[in-house]
């Protein structure tokens, strides 16, 4: 697994996804760095690497899932890639309901299946938690949350409290450590 982590770090760096400066995060928090995982998710090699890593982590943790769930935007390319690698269907939640056409906030179906949630980055975990809650409200079961980079700013505790597995491919501290190696 260590080798996969190093490959992920290498790709994130090559793709210019680790940025230093002054950033405002989704939660309103300020940060001196930003991990632009979405930029790397435009790279087919990164998509392949991440989906293989996520499938391996899910297998190692015995997450016997039927479907994949995500929220736009960052989760979508991940869900598509993992769907192709695992041959399991996926669903997408919209951040907001549409006001025309098909107005549901859900694309795909939930019929009591077992889900893994995928997310590009977790900071507070609130975005991934909204997916977990929305799957459960509709009768789905959530086995775990798989994330590319966890910034170690609270998400782990959020899911521990809920009794839901939280499985980052990489922690921010590992990203910083390996990026200097
Ligand atoms: O753990 P949290 O504190 O919720 O922060 C992480 C969330 O923030 C980012 O999304 P963003 O809100 O920037 O939306 P986007 O995917 O549409 O770019 C990221 O993709 C996660 O979804
Ligand atoms: O918390 C966030 O909004 C966030 C942090 C980060 O490093 N990368 C990202 O895409 N979002």
Written overview of the protein:
- Helix content is 41%, strand content 28%.
- By secondary structure, the protein is α/β, with parallel strands linked by helices.
- It has a single domain (43-170), classed as Rossmann fold.
- The strands form two sheets. Strands 5-4-3-6-7-8 form a six-stranded mixed sheet, with helices on both faces. Strands 1-2 form a two-stranded antiparallel ribbon.
- Strand 1 and strand 2 (30-35) form a beta hairpin.
- The two termini are 17 Å apart.
- The structure holds 1-O-pyrophosphono-5-O-phosphono-alpha-D-ribofuranose (PRP) and orotic acid (ORO).
- Orotic acid binds at residues 25-27, 34-35, 37, 121, 123, 151.
- Residues 41-158 form the Phosphoribosyltransferase domain.
- One of its GO terms (biological process) is pyrimidine nucleobase biosynthetic process.
Write a short abstract of this structure.
41% of the residues lie in helices and 28% in strands. The protein is an alpha/beta fold. The site of orotic acid has 9 residues, from β2.
- The main sheet orders its strands as 5-4-3-6-7-8
What is the number of independent domains? 1
User: What ligands are attached or bound here?
Assistant: 1-O-pyrophosphono-5-O-phosphono-alpha-D-ribofuranose, orotic acid
Shape annotation: globular
Total beta strands: 8
Distance between the termini: 17 Å
Please report the first level of CATH classification, the CATH class: Alpha Beta
Biggest beta-sheet profile: 6 strands, mixed
SSE string: HEEHHEHEEEHEHEH
Helix content: 40-55%
What would you say the CATH architecture is?
3-Layer(aba) Sandwich
Relative strand content: 25-35%
What gyration radius follows from the Cα positions, in whole Å? 16 Å
- Determine the structural class based on helices, strands and strand pairing: alpha/beta
Which fold name fills CATH's third level, the topology? Rossmann fold
Mean pLDDT: 96
Helical run tally: 7
**Which stretches are poorly predicted, pLDDT < 50 over at least 5 residues?**
none
Catalytic activity: orotidine 5'-phosphate + diphosphate = orotate + 5-phospho-alpha-D-ribose 1-diphosphate
Function: Catalyzes the transfer of a ribosyl phosphate group from 5-phosphoribose 1-diphosphate to orotate, leading to the formation of orotidine monophosphate (OMP).
Binding site for orotate: 123, 151
Cofactor: Mg(2+)
């Amino acid at each position: 697994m260590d080798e996969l982590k190093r490959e992920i770090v290498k790709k994130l760096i090559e793709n210019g996804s680790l940025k230093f400066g002054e950033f405002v995060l989704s939660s309103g928090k300020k940060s001196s760095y930003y991990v632009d995982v979405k930029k790397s998710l435009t790279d087919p090699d990164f998509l392949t690497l991440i989906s293989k890593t996520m499938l391996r982590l899910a297998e190692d943790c015995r997450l016997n899932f039927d479907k994949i769930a995500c929220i736009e935007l960052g989760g979508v390319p991940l869900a598509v890639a993992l769907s192709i690698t695992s041959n399991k269907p996926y669903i997408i939640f919209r951040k907001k309901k549409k006001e025309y056409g098909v107005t549901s906030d859900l694309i795909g179906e939930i019929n009591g299946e077992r889900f893994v949630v995928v997310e590009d980055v977790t900071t507070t975990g609130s975005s991934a938690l909204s997916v977990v809650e929305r799957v459960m409200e509709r009768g789905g079961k959530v086995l775990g949350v798989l994330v590319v980079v966890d910034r170690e700013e609270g998400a782990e505790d959020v899911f521990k409290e809920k009794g839901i597995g939280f499985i980052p491919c990489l922690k921010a501290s590992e990203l910083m450590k390996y990026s200097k190696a």
